[in-house]
Structures are given as structure tokens and as C-alpha cells.
Amino acid sequence: MQVDWNNLWPKISEALVETLTMVGFSLVFALFIGFPLGIALVVTRKGNLLENTVVFTILNAIINVFRSVPFIILMVAIIPLTRLIVGTSIGTAAAIVPLVFYSGPYIARLVEQSLLEVDPGVIEAAEAMGATPWQIIFTILLPEALASIVLGITIAIIGLVGASAMAGAVGGGGLGDLAIAYGYQRFETVIMFVTVVLLIILVQGFQSLGNILSRKIRRR
């Protein structure tokens, strides 16, 4: 079958923009959720700055629940909530809602892991000097873990790229939707190949950028 590239390139460009839109907005909203959750998981655990077993147990359980649900199932399960928030369950805007719920808890775990890597001796020294818990969090804990957090967020972005492609299976738009509509349903393998290459380029680009930023932060 002859591929009509003149008509197809605008569709590919539109799908790429939709994918970047989903990833960009989802990441921003997910950071607003995941970053505070990750910090809370660390500071409220036993023996830490703001120890609170109840809060830690509840947050830990909620995050585990969301992380246990595969994205494609989560996307379908929260359709009523998606409709309530954006007024529809189809399209790029609708895909952002489940992407946020999927990536927010994931980012929380990545931030938690990065903060736990900080040398406890540095925190103890700050406490000995009379620093408050909030001062330690924002002037010691976060700056010390920043390079690791950047790498963690990079991993989250790559996960979002993959999840945004899966969103195309249920009408989420983007490169995944293009691959299914043309590459799979119309058996146009060239289209499938192009979408795969574009996704690989996106992943490689985000990973390289994350690595560069992390290295620069570590050298400071």
C-alpha cells in the first residue's frame, strides 16, 4: 500500500504535539502531588524529623494502591472522575487525568528513595546546630538529594512517554493513537515504524537531558 506522506506528516506532527502536551502537563501536576508526598514519606517515617506513624502508614498504603494498578486499568477505572474534571473521557485532556494519578505516586517513591540516600550524618549535624525540621528539609535534605531527584524525575518522564502511548489504545490521542489507528488497524507498518522511532527519540532525548542536568548539579 502506497503511503500518502503529504497527508500523513501533519497527522504525525499533531500526534507528536499531543504526546508532548500529555507528558508536559501530566508531569507538572504529578510533581505537585508526588514531590510533597515523597518528602512526607521520608520525614514522617520512624526516627525521622517529623515522625508520625499514622501519617506515614496512610500515605504509604495509598501510594502502594495506586502503584499496584496497571495504567490501562487505572485509565478505565477513573473514567467517571476524568469526566467530572475535564468533561470527557476521550482525547488528550482526558488522558492527562489518569496520567497524573499514575505518575504522581511513582514520583513520590522516586523522591523518597533519593532523600533516603542523603547521609544521615549531615542531618544530625544540622540538628546539633539547632536547625528546625523545615530548615533541614529545604536547606539540607533537598539540595543534597537534588541530583538524584533529577534522575528520578527523568525516569518518571520516560514512564509518562510510555503511558501516553498506551493512552492511545482508549482514544487518548498522541503517537499511541496514531500507531493504533494507522499502523495496527490499517496494517500500515511504515506508520508503526515512524511512531516507534519518534518515541525512542523522545526517550533518548529526555534521558540525555536528565543525565546532563544531574551531572551539572553534582559538580556544584
From TrEMBL:
<keyword id="KW-1133">Transmembrane helix</keyword>
<keyword id="KW-0812">Transmembrane</keyword>
<protein>
    <submittedName>
        <fullName>Methionine ABC transporter permease</fullName>
    </submittedName>
</protein>
<feature type="domain" description="ABC transmembrane type-1">
    <location>
        <begin position="16"/>
        <end position="208"/>
    </location>
</feature>
<comment type="similarity">
    <text>Belongs to the binding-protein-dependent transport system permease family. CysTW subfamily.</text>
</comment>
<feature type="transmembrane region" description="Helical">
    <location>
        <begin position="84"/>
        <end position="102"/>
    </location>
</feature>
<dbReference type="InterPro" id="IPR000515">
    <property type="entry name" value="MetI-like"/>
</dbReference>
<feature type="transmembrane region" description="Helical">
    <location>
        <begin position="190"/>
        <end position="213"/>
    </location>
</feature>
<keyword id="KW-0472">Membrane</keyword>
<dbReference type="GO" id="GO:0048473">
    <property type="term" value="P:D-methionine transmembrane transport"/>
</dbReference>
<feature type="transmembrane region" description="Helical">
    <location>
        <begin position="20"/>
        <end position="43"/>
    </location>
</feature>
<dbReference type="InterPro" id="IPR051322">
    <property type="entry name" value="AA_ABC_Transporter_Permease"/>
</dbReference>
<feature type="transmembrane region" description="Helical">
    <location>
        <begin position="145"/>
        <end position="170"/>
    </location>
</feature>
<dbReference type="GO" id="GO:0005886">
    <property type="term" value="C:plasma membrane"/>
</dbReference>
<keyword id="KW-1003">Cell membrane</keyword>
<dbReference type="InterPro" id="IPR035906">
    <property type="entry name" value="MetI-like_sf"/>
</dbReference>
<dbReference type="Pfam" id="PF00528">
    <property type="entry name" value="BPD_transp_1"/>
</dbReference>
<keyword id="KW-0813">Transport</keyword>
<feature type="transmembrane region" description="Helical">
    <location>
        <begin position="55"/>
        <end position="78"/>
    </location>
</feature>
